[in-house]
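ok so for the tutorial part 2 we go from a plain amino acid sequence to predicted C-alpha cells. step 1 is just haveing the sequence, like this:
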Amino acid sequence: MAVPKGANANAPMTKGASAKSVSPPGVGTFKFEVPADFDAFYKSFPDVSEAQVALDIAELRGRKDWVGIEKAWTAYLKHHNKHAAPWMYAELATAMEINKRDPAIIKTTFGWYAYMASKSKDPRGIALIAACDALLLHKYYEIALPNGIKVRLADLLDQAVKVAPQNAEPILMSILMAERLKDIKRFLNSSETLLSLGWPGVDETWRTGLRNRFSLLAKQLREEGRDDDAKELTQRLSGIEARDLVVRLTWEKDSLLELCVDEPLGATADHYNPRTVFGGALVKEGRGKDREAVYVCPRGFDGTYVIRVNVLYNDENQPTKVAKLEIVSHEGTPDEQSVYQTLSLSKLEPIRINLSGGRRKTVLPYFAPNQLKAPTDEPLPPRHDPGKSKAPAVKPATGAGAKPKP
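step 2 — the prediction. this is what the C-alpha cells look like for a chain of 406 residues:
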C-alpha cells in the first residue's frame, strides 16, 4: 500500500505477499500486511490523506477483502473525518451490502453519502447526480439521519437539475421517480424540463418515449380512479411538446451538407458545438443515407436566427444541386407557422428568421473545454536513474503496515 523508505516510487507494484520482485537492483519488494485492528491502525496516525487511503482500499479491493474495506472505511471516517468525501461513504455502503449488514445501517450510510454530495461544490454536480442514482436504485426516497436531518431524493434531484440543467440524467431520474410514486406534479414539471431542450442524437427517440409514458401513466391513473389527473396529463402534453423553432434540412444523392444556426445572443449551434447556452441544439446531422439535419430550439429567446448551410462533400459525377429547408416557428401551438425554401447549392446565402414570443427566460451554464497546457522552452527535468540515486524517502502513513522483504 504505502511506499516504504528507500523504495523506488516509480517501480511497478504487484499484489500480495507472494509477489515476485520487480524492483531495480538494491530495492526490496513489498510485503503487505493487513492490520488486525483497523481502528487502532488509523487512530495511530495524526493525518492520513485521501490519496493514501485510496491506495490502501485499492490493495484490499485487489484481495477482494470486502470485510477489510468496510472496517478500513469505518475507521478512517471515524478518525480522519476532515478528509471525508461522498465517494468514501458510497464505497462503505457498497461494502456493507456485499457483507450483508443490517439494511437500516446500509440505508443510513447511503444517506450520509447523499448528504455529503449535496454539500459538494462541484459545478457539474457529478457527485450529486451519482448519489441520486444510488438512492433511486435502492428506492430510498427519504432517509432520516441520526442528527435529525432528513435526506429526500426529491430535493436532491431538484438540486441536481438546478446545478446541471444541461444534463439529462437527473431529469430522467426525476421522471422515473414520479412514475413510481404517481406524482403528477413532478412528472409534468420534469417532462417540461426535459423537452425544453434539444438532445443531440436522441431527441426524437426521447420525445416519442415520453409521449408513450404519458399514455401509460394516464391509463394507470384511470384504473386507480384518478380520472382528473389522467385528464390533466392528456391536456398538458401538447403544450410540453411545443417548440419555439425547428429547422429541418433535407437533400438527395451522395452529398454531405452541414447545418449551422447563429442564435440572437451570439452563440452558434453546429457540429463542434451541438448545444448552446441559449437553448438551441443541432439534434441530428445527416450522415450516409440519412440525408437530414435538424436544429431545434424548444424554448428560445426572441431575435433573429441566421441559418447557414455548408457543402462538405458533393459527388462530382452526380452532384446534388438543391436542398430543401423547412422552418417551423411555434410548432404545436395555434400560432404555428411553416416556411419552405429550395436552396441552390451553387449559390448558398444565409437565411434569417425572426422569432417573437420565445419562451426561454434563463441561460444555461457554460462549461469551458479543458485547457491544454501551452508548450514552453523550458528543458525537461532529468530522468530518474535508480542506479545513480535513491528515490526520496516516503513515510508509510498507512498501507496496512507495508514493509520491505528482507
